[in-house]
Amino acid sequence: MTSDHLDKTMMFKVEAEEVNQARDILLAVYAALKEKGYNPINQLVGYLLSGDPAYITSHGNARNIIRQLERDELLEEIVKKYLDVK
């Protein structure tokens, strides 16, 4: 990797279908965490930062559901919603 590579901005694009799936996954996992008495926000942040699925309950198959998409796809959905960007 040359220093020229570090000066360039890389493009990242997620398809619209993946964004809708990301939203559905986040909502399902949020509900499962809440049902089990966890703080869903803390648990999701722990998972997104670490990649460790142990932050997500297996209740309602949430641990398998969240692994259907890469963490970067989930993070993109969160950032878009936070910034209210379509």
What does this structure look like?
The chain is mostly helical and 86 residues long. The protein has one domain. The chain is built from 5 helices and no strands. The N and C termini lie far apart (34 Å).
Principal-axes geometry comes out as elongated
Strand content: under 5%
Order of helices and strands: HHHHH
Q: Number of DSSP strands?
A: 0
- Poorly predicted runs of 5 or more residues: none
| Rg | 15 Å
Structural class: mainly alpha
- Biggest sheet statistics: none
Number of domains: 1
What is the end-to-end distance? 34 Å
User: Kindly state the mean pLDDT as a whole number?
Assistant: 87
- Output the number of helix runs: 5
Essential attributes:
86 residues, elongated, single chain, 0% strand, mainly alpha
Question: Topology of this structure?
Answer:
Blueprint: H1 3-6, H2 16-35, H3 40-50, H4 62-66, H5 71-83
What's the quick description here?
The protein is mainly α and about 90 residues long. The protein contains five helices and no strands.
